[in-house]
TrEMBL record:
<protein>
    <submittedName>
        <fullName>Uncharacterized protein</fullName>
    </submittedName>
</protein>
Length: 207
């Protein structure tokens, strides 16, 4: 959703949801141009969660509008903040973008994995267990750990907006590729040196 939020100022060429999906995929491929494997992870929006109750309070009694997510849904004159105000719209959009990304990269040499609404899929014949993660932060670490088992010597890069995932990565560092880093707003940070110098081993990292 961070990548979606960066697209709040839509180009004039985006008229429908299908246009938005294609533009989203283009942005994703540009961001990950040097990668052999891409893992796209979305938040899960649960109606009975504490986060949902917090979102409802922020709306201050204003009812959000739910939009149908389909290829031909027109969003040309809808501000993105208004378009994404309803949780069901956001849920449906994450599923749509995950499916669109796999479709656009069906024949790509890159391995593309998407996870949305508790379902993880890829553009290859791989099997994934269902998950109950609501937070993208913990789900990202879980999928990164699985990817690290497949390619332990690979360079692993997280694209994140804040430090939450960095804290989790330090705790889970022994399960990740040793060449793991975070690309954040403030710059790129390597996980290993922090784990060694600040956490000083397994117990402090877990704490």
């Amino acid at each position: 959703m961070v990548l979606v939020q960066k697209m709040t100022t839509k180009p004039a060429t985006i008229i429908t949801v299908k246009d938005f999906g294609q533009h989203f995929n283009d942005r994703l491929m540009t961001l990950t141009a040097g990668s052999d494997e891409i893992i796209l992870v979305f938040d899960t929006y649960k109606s009975d969660s504490l986060k949902q109750k917090t979102r409802e309070k922020r709306r201050q009694g204003k009812d959000p509008v739910q939009y149908q997510i389909a290829d031909d849904t027109s969003i040309k004159h809808i501000p993105m903040g208004h378009f994404l105000s309803h949780e069901k719209t956001k849920t449906d959009l994450t599923v749509y973008l995950a499916e669109a990304t796999l479709k656009y990269n069906a024949n790509s040499p890159k391995l593309v994995i998407t996870s949305a609404a508790g379902r993880t899929r890829s553009n290859r014949s791989m099997q994934f267990d269902s998950n109950n993660h609501e937070e993208v932060d913990t789900l990202m670490i879980s999928l990164a750990a699985a990817a690290s088992q497949r390619c332990p010597e690979a360079q692993l890069v997280f694209f994140i907006p804040d430090t939450d995932v960095l804290v989790l990565a330090i705790a889970a560092y022994e399960k990740l590729c040793k060449n793991a880093s975070m690309t954040m707003v403030s710059g790129t940070v390597e996980v290993g040196p922090i784990w060694r110098a600040r956490a000083r081993g397994r117990e402090k990292a877990a704490a």
